[in-house]
Amino acid sequence: MLPVSRTWAAIGRRRFIKFASGIGVGVALSVTTLSACQPGTDVADTPGDVPAEDAGGGTVRIGMTASDIPLTGGAPNSGFEGVRFTGMTIYDALVTWDLSVEDEPAPLVPQLATDWSVDEDDPRVWTFNLRQGVTFHDGSDFNADAVIFNFEKIFDEDAPHYDARQSAQVVARLPAYESIRKVDDYTVEITTQEPTSLLINQLPFMFFSSPAHYEALGEDWSAFEEDPSGTGPFMLDELVPRERAVLVPNPNYWDENRMAQADRIELIPIPEGTTRSNALLAGEVDWIEAPPADTLAMLEGRGFTITSNGYPHLWPWQFSFLDDSPWTDKRIRQAANLAVNRDEIEALLGGNMVQAKGILLPDDPAFGDPEFEVRYDPDAALELLEEAGYGPDNPVEVTMLISASGSGQMQPLPMNELIQQQLAAVGIDVNYEVLVWETLFDNWRQGADSPDSRGAHGTNITFATHDPFAAMVRFIYSESAPPNSLNWGYYSNPEVDALIEELQLAFDPEENLAVYQRLHETLVEDAPFLFVAHDVGPRAMRSEVQGFVQAKSWFQDITPVWMSN
Amino acid sequence: MFLYICRRIVYTIPIALAVAVVCFSLVHLAPGDPLSAVIPADAPAEVVERIIQAYGMDRPLPVQFFAWLGRAVQGDLGFSVATGRPVTQEIGRALGYTFVLSLAAAAIGFLFGILFGTLAAFFQGRWSDKLVTGIALFGVSVPHYWLGLLLVIIFSVQLDWLPSLGGGSGSWINRARYLVLPAITMSFIPMGIVTRTVRSTVADLLGSEFVTSLRARGLGSSRIANHVAKNAAPTVLAVMGLQFGYLLGGSILVETVFSWPGTGYLLNTAIFQRDIPLLQGIILTLSMFFVALNLLVDLLQTLFDPRVRRN
């Protein structure tokens, strides 16, 4: 076994206290896990602190952007919003993010696993020690059998409790998994398809439902959706499809630092942005996700609290590297990155963005120190274009696929129009093919050479960057070219491929961080994307909502939240 | 009469079949992956393939169509891809809400429509006629999702009298409060259309010879109104039937603005989630409602006007 050397001194404050007591922690955490606390460039504006002894109680009604209650059986749909509200509330994972910190990208921490190690001889084999004394909401024990039952539910098509619908939500997020074996009641061994350090980044999406409760409900996953049982800090009290889900605290939750503070959380789907902000104004909800950008100032003026914080999200242009694409010339890619004035884009969005200087947030520990600095420098851009044989009088012509709206796309039309003007000034003429969001999204998997791409030289789809796989591997590894994954533009760089392979094998935390930094530095320098913005995930809530800490994450912890009246 | 009814019912069969074909083709021809609701974007190709197989969407479209049609005629519309719940159960819930909303909107719209229309016809050319025609024109032209938002801003946000979203729960009175704003919003279009129809029909009738002869025979205005109403009824009923059909179809925009859990809202969800079984189920059910309602209106018309039957 590799040595278990890492302590949690660097991890978030509350987590540290919780885990410092005797947990030796496994190797191969992702680099984000291992960072020393760095001063954030963008500290969240969060509701006021109230002394802990006054805390607790009340009903918090949350207006979600989803059009239905995300699935509640342990494999939520509706993207990351589902994971946020019906995943991490009712369920726990082996590993999760510490969402109690707001000034650094949320690090990974143990949850239902206490520690883990990787086999030295066969690094595909991971041993996880499970937390003892944890019970599901129905009172049954969480143990190795429950873990195996849940992996079978997702991965084993021959298992009687296999559920295609739940499987679809998880399989793609856990590509490393191959098999699982029980060692003893509180130890399991997971084998990956190839040796990869990235398994640990994928495990937070694997939640654990109670096998005993599933049996008690007649082995029916639909019945389980209505009356679920996990190990999480909340229990589902009521589910009215498309109207509301009511969560109440789990009084027997194992983690006393994450006991739910509110008496009741109501999750209400309100897909229409204006309706959401009206509902907040009318006092029908206490908190809304993603208020429309043009209502933020008004809501703030009326005394609502607006919280926001940079999170691992990138608004990029992803370039095509097919022969006919001008972006195959690195000088043109770098020139475009230098020609975009991100101050103007930030002003356009009313300050609701973090300017991108690479794929990762500028304060991410894996950001590294790239040779090429992404900045606004039109003179340098002109020089690079001139070297490449272009200029304002002899412009490069490119066509880009964009959408008029879409999940996570911020304000794609005005942002792209501004970029179009900025690039035209240095000699890059951009034509847009505006597609319906769903069509653009589906085209992502088809690649630049698909007829649906209409010969475009790039696409504009935002994505999550919370781990190396999400942020990079799926877009820039040559093996990720369509139909395997989302390397839409067929980017292929032997140096990058070698670094990805090295990263997969870097089980030592410090080495892992070092390789991840080198990978990011290389990518910033080679600029396979136009790096534009990171979203800040604004939320609006009544001033009575207390205790919320907006983590630098797609996910947020609602256990500390309560109402002060 | 019996033969007439039978003939009308037989006519609905090809209509229903055509609706089924069109709705199935439209849904399948629309851009986008039919299973994007359940498959994350970066799912590996083999996972996508496995899931498509599991949902039977790898079979040729005609095979899928007949399999679906075969189940649909037995009342089985399949399962929602996104939630796994039976489509009939999803639609059943939503239909209840839309039915209540349509009934309320129709009651408001038809009542005011008939009132305003009659008023305008009796006072043709006077200021009251112009006012009523103006209101009717407003009702027909105003984008009703905009009107909905406006009502929310006035009655929910500013005055705090009425709730702005959801279907409500608990007592009957509480639920009714949730109904008020969407029902008023939905009632504007039928009100406008019914006003205009009633006005022109009644105005025509008032100028017709039989009314003049009734007047000449010394009939009182209430008895003349009675005759006029009876003659106007077939036209107005036909229009009201169609309008009620539109209302029953649910309004995607209004139901979404108010998060009213009816069929329009469900349709919106199904479209955005690319939930094909649900989408097909809703469109088919709503179309059948429309067909059935048309039939009902036709039959009602024959009761009022035997000429329809004879033609």
Structure in words:
The complex is a heterodimer of chains A (565) and B (311). Chain A is an alpha+beta fold. Chain A folds into three domains: 44-73 and 232-310 and 537-565, D-Maltodextrin-Binding Protein, domain 2; 91-227, Dipeptide-binding Protein, Domain 1 (Dipeptide-binding Protein, domain 1, Alpha-Beta Complex), CATH 3.90.76.10; 313-535, Dipeptide-binding Protein, domain 3 (Roll), CATH 3.10.105.10. Helix content of chain A is 28%, strand content 19%. A seven-stranded mixed beta sheet of chain A has the order 8-9-10-1-11-20-12. In chain A, helix 14 links the parallel strand 15 (396-403) and strand 16. The termini of chain A are far apart. The relative contact order of chain A is 0.17. The model of chain A is unreliable at 1-52 (pLDDT under 50). With 311 residues, chain B is mainly alpha-helical. Chain B has a domain at 94-310: Orthogonal Bundle (MetI-like fold), CATH 1.10.3720.10. Helices cover 77% and strands 0% of the residues of chain B. Chain B has helices spanning 2-29, 45-54, 61-73, 87-122, 127-141, 144-158, 172-206, 209-216, 221-248, 252-257, 263-272, 276-304, 306-310. The longest helix of chain B is centred in the middle third of the chain and has 36 residues, at 87-122. Chain B is globular. In chain B, 41% of the residues are buried. Chains A and B meet through helix 5, helix 8, helix 9 and helix 15 of A and helix 2, helix 4, helix 6 and helix 11 of B.
Task: Tell me which oligomeric state these chains represent.
Answer: heterodimer
By CATH's scheme, which homologous superfamily of the largest domain in chain A applies?
A: Dipeptide-binding Protein, Domain 3
How would a textbook summarize the main sheet of chain B?
A: none
Give the overall pLDDT of chain A as a whole number: 88
- Supply the CATH superfamily name of the domain at 94-310 in chain B: MetI-like
Radius of gyration of chain A: 23 Å
What would CATH call the architecture of the domain at 94-310 in chain B?
Answer: Orthogonal Bundle
- Cα(first) to Cα(last) distance of chain B is 12 Å
Proportion of residues in extended strands of chain A? 15-25%
Let me know the number of strands of chain B. Answer: 0
Put simply, the count of helices of chain A is: 18
Q: Rough shape of chain A?
A: globular
| Major sheet of chain A | 7 strands, mixed
What is the CATH topology of the largest domain in chain A? Answer: Dipeptide-binding Protein, domain 3
The gross shape of chain B turns out to be: globular
- Could you give the count of β-strands of chain A? 22
Task: Name the poorly predicted regions of chain A.
Answer: 1-52
Structural class of chain A: alpha+beta
Low-confidence stretches of chain B: none
Calculate the terminal CA-CA distance of chain A, rounded to whole Å: 53 Å
